[in-house]
Specification:
Blueprint lengths: L1 H18 L4 H25 L1 H16 L5 E4 L2 E8 L3 E6 L2 E6 L2 H4 L2 E3 L1
Antiparallel strand pairs: 1-2, 1-5, 2-3, 3-4
């Protein structure tokens, strides 16, 4: 719907220009508005995805340090590594399966035993 709205808006500007109306101010304002919306979306995506991307990068680093079946203790939690997903380390503990964000392994010291 958004794309069709922009198409109709640009068709209207082209029609006004064809008739002979000055559309310079309208085109400049529309360009600024679209640029602002794109910038806001980029900032929101970048800032919102920062934690997710941090977990993805940490998980990639942990794949060389941790393997499935190893015992791990992080903070007060100990368990066996089940697998390393794209963003988390899956531990099997005495209370069940725990998904720990991979970035926690960079923030909190852990031991492998």
């Amino acid at each position: 719907k958004l794309a069709s709205g922009f198409i109709f808006l640009f068709m209207g500007i082209i029609a006004m220009s064809t008739v002979g109306l000055d559309t310079g101010i309208l085109t400049a304002n529309l360009t600024l508005i679209i640029g602002g919306v794109v910038l806001a979306a980029a900032l929101a995506g970048g800032l919102g995805g920062r934690d997710a991307m941090g977990n993805v990068l940490a998980a990639n680093q942990l794949r060389s340090a941790l393997k499935a079946g190893q015992s791990v203790m992080i903070d007060d939690l100990s368990g066996t590594v089940e697998r390393i997903s794209a963003t988390a380390v899956v531990l099997k503990t005495s209370t069940g399966i725990m998904h720990i964000p991979a970035s926690e392994f960079q923030r909190i010291p852990f031991t492998v035993g």
